[in-house]
Amino acid sequence: MQMRSTRRCAVASLLWTLIHGQLGAVVVFGPGGADRNASAPTGSLADSGWQWTGHFNAFCGVPVGRSSFLTAAHIGGEVGDRFDWNGRSYRTVGFETDAASDLRLWHVSGEFGSTTPIVLQDLRIGESVMILGRGTARGTPILAERVDDSPILAGWRWGSLDGRLRWGTNTIAHRIDGASIGLYGPLAGCAFDGGIGNDEACISLGDSGGPLFVRRSQEWQLAAIHFAVEAAFNTSETGTGENGTLFDYRGLYRQSNSAWVLEPIEGTSPVPAVFFSTRVMPRRTWLDASIAKAPAAPTLEQAADPQGPFIPAVGSNHDPVARTFTLDPSAGSTFFQLRGTAGLVIVRVHLQSGQVVIQYD
User: Fold this and answer.
1) Distance between CA atoms of 216 and 53, rounded to whole angstroms?
2) Which of 101, 159, 166, 295 could share a disulfide with 136, CB 3.0–4.6 Å?
3) How far, in Å, CA of 98 to CA of 101, rounded?
4) DSSP three-state, residue 91
5) CATH architecture assigned to 2-291
6) Alpha-carbon dihedral of residues 168, 171, 177, 179, nearest 10 degrees?
7) Global confidence as pTM
């Protein structure tokens, strides 16, 4: 899906690619293969968001409430889809969609063991950030004619799909209202200009829902959710063009108002692609209200007959993270049921250490 812009940060008219539809990944500037930045960062970047990033269908999400995770709205999804995080798989039971941005909050059955810290102050221009997303390593090189018809590396095509989580860094270059560029919601923009080292990264198709973290004091906090990226390019003014991750458009054609326009070869400064993520802080009131709408925890009921009457199970202990109830066994036959949000199901009943353990989903 594409949306036409009216201007690009007061620079140009472009078509933006909403980053969904097939997998894509964080594309890193520096050298390396498919394993580059595909495991948790270490050193000064340790605990910078990797530990909070879960998988939702082919995309990403982050737990922000006891039973709720945040992602992008335009990736879709259905109640009953799975969210995998921290070694557990959670069934979605409902969602809240922000009418003023691309954010969507999903509710799950059970609870998370912990939740992602969220910024209390909005992103600032020039701040360093960590970005994460799933999919591919970068593809084949994109060459641009610059001087004396000599081809020079300008970026990389989107490569093969592998669905892997990868990370990279960047800095905030823009903080805007998305309506000003043909999108919507409060946005933060980062440029892929190769100016901050080998870990500098850009997002590609499929990275929707991936998080952007910023370090505040001694803690990395969630600040934005990936939304859209400038990706279309062409080597001539005709044809359908291609998609890729460009750190310098000079000498290539960019899509503008449904036409291909040559980016002039002027000066020495690169003309990079820009990606945008939805800023969370300006939508904090909506987010807090939506988290509060998470369904209440289920209750366990029991009866001596499958037709009831069912009453609250006496002496049961609930572990919402493990999604279990435990209680002492009783004499005779006992039948159990759960009361709570629609779709709850008991998946296993067994004895463990002398107690009845009832697992649900």
Assistant:
1) 18
2) 159
3) 6
4) strand
5) Beta Barrel (2.40)
6) -50
7) 0.90
- Rounded Cα distance between 190 and 238, Å, is 29
- State the burial class of residue 277 (Cβ atoms within 10 Å of its Cβ: 0-12, 13-18, 19+): buried
pLDDT digits (tens, 9 = 90+) for 199-235: 998 888 778 899 999 999 889 999 999 999 998 999 9
Cα separation, 198 vs 207, whole angstroms: 20
Rounded-to-integer distance, Cα 78 and Cα 321, Å: 22
Specify burial of residue 353 (Cβ count, 10 A radius: 0-12, 13-18, 19+). exposed
Cβ count within 10 A of residue 24: 31
User: What residues does each domain of the chain span?
Assistant: 2-291, 299-360
The mean pLDDT value of the chain amounts to 88
Q: For 147-164, write each residue's pLDDT tens digit.
A: 766 788 999 988 776 778
Tokens for 203, please give them.
């997002």
* Two tokens, residue 312: 């609250």
